[in-house]
Amino acid sequence: MTLILASQSPFRRMLMENAGLSFTMEAARIDERAVETALAARNPSPQDVAETLAIEKARDVAGRHPGVLVIGSDQTLSLEGRVFHKPADMAEAKSHLTSMSGRTHSLNCGVALVRDGETLWSQVSIAHLTMRPLSASFIDRHLSRVGDKVLASVGAYQLEGEGVQLFERIDGDYFTILGLPLLPLLAKLRELGAIDA
């Protein structure tokens, strides 16, 4: 069965390749902020936003590929009611890290399976990450070392790289943190007969 990952994320690609899945990738062409704005009237939780964006990404790509099973995924980062987005520049990345310093934030990762416009399954997995207290000078040095790649992440860090040095505690699934709740996804793909069970 053909699978499409509605993403261009190298991290999601790596996770699926490492799991031995055969798939292609195609980025969704949706305006994420417009979807969030439309949701705002319902006062959605960060989890609702992640799940809705995952579904919308999968629906968008599925609309161009009849009969194909499409995987959508999206991640939001929330801290005491505030939802963070990917930083636009290094100054915003510093602001993100400063806000999260010494506090616990949540990574909310939505995943969905869509075929022919029908959402066959979706769910949200949550991880809680506690950042150690960080000095402004350490944040500056850290960002200088790791560079622009922090702009690709909602949290302005990559846990699989030097970003691990920012944390004192992590509660949650590693795959969820990287942006794709792989274990529940694999279970559902097996249930649907999309991969070998």
Automatic annotation (TrEMBL):
It comes from Shinella curvata. Pfam families: Maf. Gene3D superfamilies: 3.90.950.10. The active site is at residue 74. This is 7-methyl-GTP pyrophosphatase. Nucleoside triphosphate pyrophosphatase that hydrolyzes 7-methyl-GTP (m(7)GTP). May have a dual role in cell division arrest and in preventing the incorporation of modified nucleotides into cellular nucleic acids. It catalyses: N(7)-methyl-GTP + H2O = N(7)-methyl-GMP + diphosphate + H(+). Its main location: cytoplasm. Its cofactor is a divalent metal cation. The record marks 11, 75, 160 as: Important for substrate specificity. It comes from the Bacteria. The keyword DNA damage does not apply. Its EC number is 3.6.1.-. Keywords: Cytoplasm, Hydrolase, Nucleotide metabolism. The lineage of its organism: Bacteria, Pseudomonadati, Pseudomonadota, Alphaproteobacteria, Hyphomicrobiales. It is found in: Cytoplasm. Belongs to the Maf family. YceF subfamily.
